[in-house]
Design goal:
This protein has six helices and 14 strands. The chain is an alpha/beta fold and 267 residues long. Helix 1 packs across helix 5, helix 2 runs parallel beside helix 3 and helix 4 crosses helix 6. The longest helix is centred in the middle third of the chain and has 17 residues.
Amino acid sequence: MKILIIGGSRFVGPHLVKLLIARKHTITVFNRGVISTKYPKGVTFIKGDRDKGFYVKEKFDVAIDMCAFIGSQTSRAIEELKFDYFLNFGTSASYQKTEIFPLAEESPIGDWPAFGDYNKGKVACERVLEKSGIKCGTIRPAYILGPKNYCDRENFIYSRIIKKIPLILPGNGLGVTQFVFVDEVALAIVALVEHRAQGAFNIAGDQIITNTGLVGEMGKIVGKEPIIQLNPDAIGLNFKEEEFPFDNENDYKNFYQKKQSKLPGPL
């Protein structure tokens, strides 16, 4: 298939490009070129700013949007580009705050105050697609971990454990989190676009872990005992990223019920 990737210069993007090339797809990448990325042989790179227009006349079988953060960006993409199927890189942070779990793909999206403008923008992107009537899908991954993560998450914790710097966990340290690894996200995207699967899809690992448990396991990996301190005032919207990369809202947003009936089989 002829596939256009909007963004794709970092983290999940390079993993995805390599997988798609290995599966004999023809890939075009469109982004600003701000991040120096060496794409595999055969990949066509188009330098451009999506907010100024795409100016891409070619039609694609699939368009994968990895960097839409506000509704107008999604609107522009689906209006200006030519494609048969569109995949939106969404987020689990799009779910509406609730006390009913686990969150399935059918759970309502909407306002989750802890995620601020990021939540609002990503929800707006999904709303645009809902109203568009085009053939499309959205992925809602949990916190993504893996090599070359541009978010200061794994490095934040490991560096403090190794240097014996106290890790200040929010609240009581028992906030529950769920993760997914970068290669798993890339594999899921490939499966979805090859099947042109429609609807929303949660992408997350099967295990859940508390913040305290996470730090403990990471300490075991590097062979050092972490120094854990608690900040009981850093709960809910008082969460401080400079102290710890994950909040203490129990992260119920990451409790997923995978829709097995909709997920394609292994690649």
